[in-house]
Amino acid sequence: MARTKLSDEQIAGGLSGLPGWSYQNGQITKEYAFESYATGLAFASTVGYMADKLDHHPDLFIGYRKVRVSLNTHDVNGISELDFELASRIELL
After folding, report:
1. Left if phi > 0, otherwise alpha if psi is -120 to 50, otherwise beta: which for 77?
2. Which structural domain, as residue segments, surrounds residue 64?
3. Each residue of 54-91: b (16+ CB within 10 Å) or e?
4. What is the number of other CB atoms lying within 10 angstroms of the CB of residue 39?
5. Does residue 2 form part of some domain?
6. I need a surface site. Which of 49, 60, 61, 62 has the fewest CB within 10 A?
7. Would you say residue 18 lies in a domain?
8. pLDDT score for 3
9. Which residues contact 11 (CB under 8 A, 6 or more apart)?
10. Is residue 3 in some structural domain?
11. Domain containing residue 58: CATH number
């Protein structure tokens, strides 16, 4: 998967296919709500495992009944196709 920095237009196009995701502070991000802390923790663990398989590591904030996922590609100092690939996989959970 290409690790090339995407333009603002490309980022906007990628976000159009990911409901609930937004572009903030140089990252694409989404907050997920859960019925319990344990369910959110299990989700975050699954995201971490998937991310590690892609050798791509998001910022995860685990709160009470919520998890915020934030993605960017450090290698390009911005957003790349890899961020959208991982976001799409997360949406399938």
Report:
1. left
2. 8-91
3. eebebebeeeeeebebbbbbeeeebbbebbbbbbeebe
4. 14
5. no
6. 49
7. yes
8. 85
9. 23, 28, 79
10. no
11. 3.30.1360.20
